[in-house]
Specification:
alpha/beta, 15% strand, 4-stranded mixed sheet, 137 residues, 8 helices
Length: 137
């Protein structure tokens, strides 16, 4: 290269997809969605939106909620813009209500709940909240 600088924007879509699909889809969505029209189209691909794991695994093996800023942006902007593509969601118990109620998920077929206590699970899956959510959304 004769002194020119190659940037991500210069790469063809196929190469960008190869790079981005090797990264964490939550981080890709958080950092790139709404960056520009081209990147927005790329990250709306089902590679990044079919299965979302909205938890972090700590070094000791426990599951933690996403950082508050990331969580808030997902609930207010990102999830509503990709809701129709989501087929599976993994969420941490303390963020479950925010994530599930921020938008509808017409194609959701799987839900992974992490750090959920037995009494909360019994309440959710036998109580009014569960049936209201799944039958009204």
């Amino acid at each position: 290269m004769d002194g020119s600088l190659l940037t991500l924007i210069d790469l063809p879509d196929e190469v960008l997809l190869l790079i981005l699909k090797n990264l964490d889809n939550i981080e890709v969505l958080y950092l790139i969605i709404d960056l520009n029209k081209r990147f927005n189209k790329l990250v709306h691909d089902s590679i990044f939106t079919n299965h979302l794991t909205m938890i972090r695994c700590s070094s000791n093996g426990s599951f933690d909620r996403l950082d508050e800023q990331i969580h808030d942006r997902f609930c207010s902007q990102i999830l509503p813009s990709i809701h129709h593509n989501i087929k599976w969601l993994d969420v941490e118990c303390s963020s479950m209500e925010d994530v599930l109620l921020c938008t509808s998920y017409p194609n959701l077929s799987g839900l992974g709940l992490h750090n959920i206590e037995k009494n909360i699970a019994l309440c959710l899956f036998t109580g009014e909240w569960f049936f209201d959510f799944f039958f009204n959304h």
